[in-house]
Amino acid sequence: MASVVAVKTEKRSASDSQDADSNAKKRRKLLPSLKTKRAPELVLVIGTGVSSAVAPQVPALRSWKGLIQALLDAANDFDLLEEEESRRFQKHMQDDKNLVHVAHDLIQKLSPRTGNVRSTFFKDCLYEVFDDLECKMEHAGKHLLRSVLQLMESGALVLTTNFDNLLEIYAAHQGTKLESLDLTDEKKVLEWAQEKRRLSVLHIHGVYTNPRGIVLHPAGYQNVLRNTEVMREIQKLYETKSFVFLGCGRTVDDTTFQALFLEAVKHKSDLEHFMLVRREDVGEFKKLRDNMLDKGIKVISYGDEYGDLPEYFERLANEICNRDVTTNGWGAEDEGCSSQNREDEQNGFNAQKNLLQG
Which of 183, 283, 284, 328 could form a disulfide with 224, with the two C-beta atoms 3.0–4.6 Å apart? Predict the structure, then answer.
């Protein structure tokens, strides 16, 4: 099922330049093998880290456990659970039981055995958890979404493991309609994989606006996994394009992601994908980098703090788009990037400003 978010267009605001503050801190250099890519060669993979940066005050966006706890709290607020049931679920959460099973049992409790999703309390709990996301988006996070949208409008594909539609909401305020896709709409997913729906965001775990498409257990993907045409087209992307993982953490260990992209792909070490991470512990960073190379993924540090990501990714997006404008084909101008750059120039946009200010 697909949904489109559309609101009245708002002009993008530009922050005051903070060159002195930006230059005071040494910034990470952009990796040549990544910054020389063209937007249509990229698939951006948006993980929990991006959503939690955009709306940090929403606990459900921070982690899988945070989402289940938020659903449990909503169920209790609506008086949908008996006291003993609530205590049992809460104990499982505290004991760190298998969260997939906890989520499955909670959803079963909130969903009567009917095919009509409108009659389930699960839908009400989902909408309560993700209520009013638009007002909870913070400024620094919007800069990150702006860079994602900039690349997307220039030809990059976007998929996400997140249930929220923050990117679609942000894009709507910029006058761009993005369609939310989930794996229940196989026809549109196939078209997305064939690059016929570039202005669509594929939510591989579903999106909260379509509760029927929310899948919290690997068995829920069986229908899609049986469609060999869809699966082959999706896997072809992993073989022919460069994936850029943003705020993904352990996405490559995710069962769904493995089924869609990794299991049938051979010679993964010959591929060239990228994962942007915070370099906190040098030893752990090196270990992750070495492990990911076997999967064809280059691990790149964007900085030492989470707040360094928006500025780093903005520079990367601008580098790729500016390169597209000047070197696309035989010097032809790329319309997506050129329109973005023209608007940025009109707004006094400075690629080297400190995005966390203003």
Answer: 183
